[in-house]
Here is the input.
Amino acid sequence: MNAAIDGTFIAILAPFIAAAFAPFVVRMLGHNGSWLLALVPAGIFVHFLGYIDQTAGGAGIASVWDWWPGMGWPLSYLIDGLSLMFALLISGIGTFIVLYSGGYMKGHPQLGRFLSFIFLFMGAMQGLIISDNLITVFIFWELTSITSFLLIGFNHTKEKSRRAAIQALVVTGGGGLSLLAGIILVQLVAGTSDLSTLLTQPGLLQTSPYYLPILLLFLGGAFTKSAQFPLHFWLPNAMEAPTPVSAYLHSATMVKAGVYLLMRVQPIMGDTLIWSIILPIFGGLTLIVGTLLAVRQTDLKLMLAYTTVASLGLLVMLVGTSNTIAIQGAVIYLLAHSLFKGALFMVAGLVDHEAGTRDVTKLGGLAKAMPITFGAGALAALSMAGLPPFIGFVAKEELYLGIWGTELPFLALTITAVIGNALMLVIGFAVAFKPFLGAKVETPKAAHEGPVLMLAGPVVLSLCGLASALFLHWTSVHLLGPMASSVAGTVLEPEFHLFPSAIKANLILSLITVAIGLILFFRLASLRAAMDRVLRAIGWGPDLGFDQFMSGLVLLSHRVIRLIQPGQMNLYMKVAFAATAAAVLLPLILLDELPDWPEMPQMLFYEWGVLAIAVIGLAAVLNANNRLTAIAALGIQGFAVALLFMLFGAPDLSFTQFMVETLSVVILALVMTRLSLYQKDHRSVGRTIVDGTLAVAVGGGFFLLLLSVTQQPFNSELSDFFREHSVAIAHGRNIVNVILVDFRGVDTLGEIAVVAIAGLAILALIRLRPKRKLDALAVADNSNASVKANVKIAQVQETTS
Amino acid sequence: MEVALSALIGIFFMTAVYLMLSPHIIRILLGVVVLGNAVNLLIFTNGRLTREVPPIVPDDVIVAAPTIANPLPQALVLTAIVISFSFFAFLLTLAYRAYQELDTDDTDTMRIAEPADEAAPPTGY
Here is the structure.
């Protein structure tokens, strides 16, 4: 572990820097600026390629950059087979997404902003998979939620986009909070939140008494992000985003974050009974539900979106088995899925862009007009269908090998996987062949081949799906093996075969899958109609449930607010004073600190006199029924307080109090002549009793508290300091003044600031008059002013009587 | 002495709270003034009372005798008096302007910020 900034930290920061510059680049170079911008992710890709040999050797490279020494917030990263694979996918696919965006959004006035969001997301995603510290992981995790909110809601003038964006944010953000709670628990149990340290202690978390809550909280994060049933609904809705976003978020990045998390914690949380029950069940359900829902769709992007849900389910299911071969299958499938799904989304976007529609029933015969698009789509679809010689085939062989068994749980998993994969083939073919083959169908736009910017992605990605299988030995040694080792937590050196050496169960399962898939593909229309009928019969889904939840939440908070903030100041005051009384009285009573019965105070007669004046003043204030009495009575109690200060050795206070009281009386007299004081205190008997009780409780409380305090011995340490040092240090003989201007001079500055701000606020209040009122006054002046005044007086008399 | 002052402070608080619970703004304002005095006296009495010897160091000595009044609460209260006065002046102006704009001094009918029949917020997106 070194403490310096190295290339990887620069790679982590690079997307954020690119995000800042993207709008300027686009402003200067137009949509071709994406050629320049794509160099950033391409550079990151090349940088991470350099780690391949090290991670292939099984090494995990960790580094810490203490960017703010002493604060304990270092940035640290961990690169092993798992994070390297993700880093390469994110930067590699990201390169083509940036290019594709330039073509897809050509001429869009906000292309710069769009690319900026894409880069922000890329940075967040990269930080998430590369961070060593779980808290940092969480921060990037939430950052992906926020940036995906921006991306999904990019067409913010459309209500559906806004809804999809909010939905994604609520679901994934909520999951993020769950993850945070889980991370804090891990920190408490293990004493560290560094993954590199945690990974050296397998079994620590599994045997902890907090294992179950930790697991459930982590799953809460992973299942929301990776759209597991029944929280899958946000993912298809997120298709409202522009296609580059869908291709990026839903192939290798955003939705894979949950899978990444599960794979990452598999060695430290996996391989327990509860793990291998929850994950396969939810994963399997998601796989089946996802594929079935995909069949029903006619929109190319939605079909792909639901198969993404299904693929995520498959991955979760495989990770849940904690079986090394199944994990190897998951690892290959993850690579395969990222490549073919990214390519297919871009193909769907190309079709939409060039032909003007994404509805599969309105497309056909585009192969002649768009041969390259068709070629790329076909390669990707064959990989998705799991046919040789593509990486998808290798993945399927391996995962069947991992889950095949004759006992009931294995059989259930196998059947689920076969059905899911067969339906995946159906959708893959429907997306990649249906629009291109068959009779030519009239499309809204005359279709022709897309621009190079847009073709680069699907072509390269689908070829990668082929090449990674053809050069399977290289892929498995350098990428798949190290990644599988990280996920399994032990060093694996798997041997994958593109062509099976012997006829085993997995090959037969593959053949069955393809057979079922092809049969269903040719009956797609009736299958779709059947699914449609079923869903119509159910009539409710989690998507609708989300709306009900959100409007319920809004209404609930509205009701709660009405309850605790009814808008009556009087009620707020009552609550505040009741709380004050409770805060003063309850500790005295509960902690048995009530004061002793006091002796009769020994006081001089004039001191009693001043006390009596104060009480009389207060009584008069309470009973005042006109302005003059009120002002005079208030003055009486104020001057009585001043006299008290005078008697008890505080001449400074006394002078100030006299001055302030005088000023108060003057100001009050100025204002009160315009404010009416009702003759009587208009309170009902019940209200008088409640208010009186509260008043007695607060007053009595402070009486008892003060009595109790003054019965304790007095600690004069602080006062003695000022008494002793006033002349010695501050050269002043009036100790109070010395404290104010010297020892606590800054406090006095604060006090002056308060007075100044109050003065400014008063000035603003007097000067600021709403125009409406001024107009009304002007009208009133112009009309018969005296009549108006009489009416006003009559009104006042009415209300006062 | 402290006992008598404590009782007086209790009465000050009682009066202040009762006035502030009134629905009419002018009584609330009177209550605020009384409350300010109550708190000032509370701080003052907390530092114990000494008769008639102000906290001033005589000319001929460097350190005053410990029999002087406690200077610390006096410094605190001096600040508090000024602040509560400016606060009072502000509140008074606010009340006056509110009365001008709303034609009422009853806090139950001052409902601009939180109207009684506030509609539920929209539930769409």
Q: What stands out?
A: The radius of gyration of chain A is 37 Å. Chain A touches chain B through 111 residues (CB under 8 Å). The first strand of chain A starts at residue 61 and ends at 65.
